[in-house]
């Protein structure tokens, strides 16, 4: 069950409702996610940017209802302004979030929960002519987030950094809320074909290398919520925003830009030239 003990008192972010309203207009809630990748040896800079498209999966602890999701769901005990998406631990973005974090984690640490590297997420909502840019840190939730034995340092980091931005909405139910249940619910929220992608051959490896075994093949459809191979590779990534930028380009003659910054437990709003 949850070991999130910190109960924030800050109000909902002033940008959240409009952001979600805009995202609801997207046929597929795709966004560009950028992280920092270690630069090649002898490079003049330690990192280079890596960008890719991801799918927004809702705010952490607020997983949208899905009639096809058969996984047990947490009761809505918390709410947050923490965008999520799913990933594969074998993809480069996961170790990037560890290597570029303040702790400069290595590849072995990236097999579990943790991370915290700097990131940006950019959404373009054509129907309303608005771009949303979210800047902050991203944390990875893996199978070690809850379980028997001593809690990993990465799991503690996630629960501290992410838990500190989760707002309690049912005061008497915190102990019933489970990180592991939320992780499994995210897995169940994906289609069988998407779940099967976590049993693909290792992403980015040459097809000329050793032929993948029977467990790692393209096109699989997974109905087992606890398939050991798929769950070993499955991750939820949570973005902890520090700055959110809303750029309204509906009319170039009256374009407007607002910047929201999280400071001392609350959001400030400033209008800037577009």
What does this entry look like structurally?
The protein has six helices and ten strands; from the N terminus they run αββββαββαβαααβββ. It has 274 residues and is of the alpha+beta class. The strands form two sheets. Strands 1, 2, 4, 5, 6, 8, 9 and 10 form an eight-stranded antiparallel β-sheet that branches. A two-stranded antiparallel sheet has the order 3-7.
Rg from C-alpha positions? 19 Å
Order of helices and strands: HEEEEHEEHEHHHEEE
Question: Uncertain spans, ≥5 residues at pLDDT below 50?
Answer: none
Average pLDDT works out at 94
| Helix vs. strand class | alpha+beta
What gap, in angstroms, lies between the N and C termini? 45 Å
From the spread of the alpha carbons, the general shape counts as globular
Helical proportion, percent range: 10-25%
Give the percentage of residues in beta strands: 25-35%
Q: Given the structure, what is the number of helices? A: 6
* DSSP strand count: 10
Let me know the largest β-sheet: 8 strands, antiparallel
